[in-house]
UniProtKB/TrEMBL annotation:
InterPro entries: ATP-grasp (IPR011761), DcsG_Biosynth_Enzyme (IPR053191)
PROSITE patterns the record matches: ATP_GRASP
Name of the protein in question: ATP-grasp domain-containing protein
Signal peptide: none
GO molecular function: ATP binding; metal ion binding
């Protein structure tokens, strides 16, 4: 029977609510499965047929090391999601790629380390409707180093932006959409390319680096939201020339001032899938993994016999 490793991180031990239902679902299908930390140097990964990335939540602070580890994994077994996806999705410049392919993305100004923070910020704000805005790094997870500012906090915002640029980190400027305070984000979860469930996530991005508690509840995705999410996934698939659907994806949307949804994030590396909120989702993911493992094992057998 092909074996599966679910990759987490030492720092995430005991903090991933997706892990228990997924392990139970894999066990119910008879898939030999272990949850192991990607950054545990004592683990021998060659004994597994596939590695599913899940709560590798520290990867943004160790990106070169993480991608090198993923490269090693993919050389000898099935990596889900694949390395090309991880390289692209680990940097928020991917939003510009999707926007260029017609995906409705939240207005974004990318700022590079060779630019001057204050002039860029002033020029960008002059093109935006008056209101709050967000400064965040292009490589980062969740609310890490992402801060919400009011128009009167130009000095603080420019210092934050300059600090990111001084660290040779590209940054991103985006308007803060007021709808998030009333409606939160809508997260659409796709498993094996098929829509699974949607959730409402209350915003946790406070002002001046004071994150707010995040509250999650199952929600309904409208046809317009579904259409946008599937547009984004199809665009990513074309761009990356993927031969099969992603094992999982989470599409985070916000409502713009005109009432239409906009893409906030396309999460393809280690998003929480909120399996504990959707009872059938863990089993659907496990069934998909079993099929992928069987197909991968069959290919290896044919190759070995050739």
């Amino acid at each position: 029977m092909p074996t599966l490793a679910i990759a987490t991180a030492i720092a995430a031990t005991g903090h991933d609510p997706d892990l228990p239902p997924l392990l139970a679902a894999c066990q119910a299908l008879g898939i030999p499965t272990r949850a192991l930390a990607w950054d545990d140097p004592t683990i021998s990964w060659r004994g597994f047929d596939a590695v599913l990335l899940r709560s590798t939540w520290d990867y943004t602070r160790r990106l070169p090391e993480f991608l090198a580890w993923c490269d090693q994994i993919q050389q000898h077994c099935l990596l889900l999601n694949p390395l090309a996806v991880l390289r692209w999705n680990s940097d928020k410049h991917y939003l510009a790629d999707l926007a260029a392919m017609g995906v409705p993305v939240i207005s974004s100004r990318f700022v590079e380390p060779d630019e001057a923070a204050l002039p860029v910020l002033e020029a960008w704000l002059a093109t935006q409707p008056a209101g709050e805005f967000v400064v965040k790094p292009c490589i980062g997870a969740g609310a890490e180093d992402a801060v919400r500012y009011s128009p009167g906090q130009l000095f603080a915002a420019s210092n934050h932006l300059a600090g990111l640029l001084d660290q040779q980190r590209s940054a991103l400027l985006q308007p803060y959409l007021a709808s998030v305070d009333l409606q939160g984000e809508t997260a659409l979860v796709y498993l094996g390319g098929e829509f699974s469930h949607a959730l409402r996530k209350e915003a946790r991005l406070g002002q001046v680096d004071h994150p707010l508690p995040e509250r999650i509840a199952l929600s309904n995705a409208s046809p317009v939201q579904r259409s946008l999410a599937e547009h984004a996934l199809a665009a990513a698939s074309r761009l990356l020339q993927l031969e099969e659907p992603l094992a999982y994806a989470r599409v985070d949307l916000l409502e713009a001032s005109d009432g239409t949804p906009r893409l906030l994030e396309l999460e393809l590396i280690e998003p929480s899938l909120f399996l504990d909120h959707a009872g059938a989702a863990a089993h659907a993911l496990a069934r998909q993994l079993a099929a992928r493992l069987a197909a991968s094992a069959a290919v290896r057998t044919r190759t070995a016999c050739a």
